[in-house]
Input
Amino acid sequence: MTAHQSRIERRHSASDHAGLVRIAFAIASLLFADSVCPNDSFVLGLGVLYLFVALIFQLLIHNGWALGRTRSLAMGLVDIAFLSYPVYLLGPASSVLPFLYLLIPVVNAASSSSRSRVAMILAGFGSLAYVTLLALTAMGLLPYGPARVHELLHMPPPAHLLYAGTFVVMSVVLTTNIVLRQMNALDRMNRQLAELSQLDELTGLSNRRQLFTELHRQLDRVARGAQCGVLMIDLDGFKRVNDQLGHDAGDLLLRDIAGALTVETRAVDTVARYGGDEFVVVLPDLAPESAFPVAERVVAAVAAVGRERWPTTPVTASVGVAISRVDDDVATLLRRADEQAYTAKRAGGNQVAIAENESLDEAPRESKEILVG
Output
């Protein structure tokens, strides 16, 4: 799974959880509707409508539809609208319901690709809705706490309303900002861990896990008509470096060779450390006749690094080339490239080998030795 696919799945999962929270809130509002407003069919109908909307949203989420900023904003605004009515019924400054405005921005923004923007917009709308209710009741345009008349609930003094509005708005905005910071920090940590899990610790190249993921992806594309080449790179004489100069020198050489391979390939290519002193290069969308020249440049680059580092202990590369076929899997493709690398090594190393049936018009028809220097 690619990093992008992983992010999409995390957002979809967050959307699913947000939908479940919404459904739970809708069911709770139905269960307590009669105790709050006895025999009030409008309140009951409103709860049924909210549950229906929540189920529709959940169906959209489950089927992967309407994901993104627009969906998050729309669902958040619906939540604010439905929450504001019971807040009004129970008295904006006389119940704990206003603190549910804290949940709406975070829950809805968790699944959005524009998380911070969505959360702060919803925090602003939630705060505006609450302050508007306070203002309307303070001016006498709305009755205060109409569902609690039997409790002889009186309008709080203006100072109390001002305090409630300030406290709730500050809580909504500050809490949303703090939670966002923590969520973004967690996302950054997850991205770093994902990158580390895909990279070879020594060279910084892709590791075997990422290589296999990329090969699976490219072979899926090959099945749909794309092309892909693979280079298997086996270093010649690397063991002598470790034996004579030590493993630190060998590690330094591997890092230098990794850098050279990156320079000699395209940004769309995947350069991976296959294991020990073996590397693999995946060449997507490369015509078969172009794979051999790339392999020649790789051989020359490795030889140049070997000469520069330890002229008396030259390290070169045997490179095998394989071109993907429709019936290939990862194992068969790598095996063909490895067989050609072994052919190049048996022929003396420091050269490229490509099977005759792997090449097209402009490619050499047999293994070819590249003399460097």
Remarks:
- Residues 256 and 319 are 17 Å apart (CA to CA).
